[in-house]
# Entry
Amino acid sequence: MKRYTINPVRYLFVVILLLSSAGGCSNLQTNTSLYTDIGGKEKLEKVFGLAISRIYNDPILYPHFKGVPKKALRKKLVDQTCALIGGPCEYTGKSMKKAHNERDVTEVEFYRLVEHVQYAMRRMGLSYQQENLILQKLAPLKSDIVYQNGEGNPE
Ligand code: HEM
# Structure
């Protein structure tokens, strides 16, 4: 019967290959950011343009946005997401706590809004993976946006 032994030279080669490809991945992330991969600011503007029109047409969410100018909100969402995913933008809007404080945003509303963003990303041609990477960046904002324990989300 043939015996399989580990050739140390080949083993070392595989380890080096794995390590270098792992490094390659992180290089890929920094050299070509997710922002560039998805198509930059133009794509983000399209995504949030569609997401916002759905949000303003959503009977559950709209009451929060009554009187909030769409264009200004879109710019802030674009800049914020752009900065979160490695783009050359500076978010100059309010902190998430400040923007949502005293609005009593519920968890259900949060997920509903995120679903509109997710729908828009899909419609605008982002891959499933790109979509998930962006959602991973937005998810940690939840605790500053959602109203908690009847005490709001104080500053
Ligand atoms: C991932 C989820 C969310 C993100 C990333 C987000 C992000 C933002 C940003 C960047 C602004 C602009 C802040 C500024 O004016 O300087 C904003 C404002 C606002 N957000 Fe959110 N938001 C989210 C969820 C929600 C939800 C679920 C609601 C309500 C149902 C909501 C209601 C509002 C309202 C009404 C404003 C306007 C505030 C104002 O002009 O005074 N947001 N949000």
User: Anything to note?
Assistant: The longest helix spans residues 8-31. The pocket of protoporphyrin IX containing FE is lined by residues 61, 64-65, 68, 73, 76-77, 80, 93-94, 99-100, 103, 105, 109-110, 113-114, 138, 141, 145 (CB under 6 Å). Residues 9-30 have pLDDT under 50 and may be disordered. The chain has one domain: 33-145.
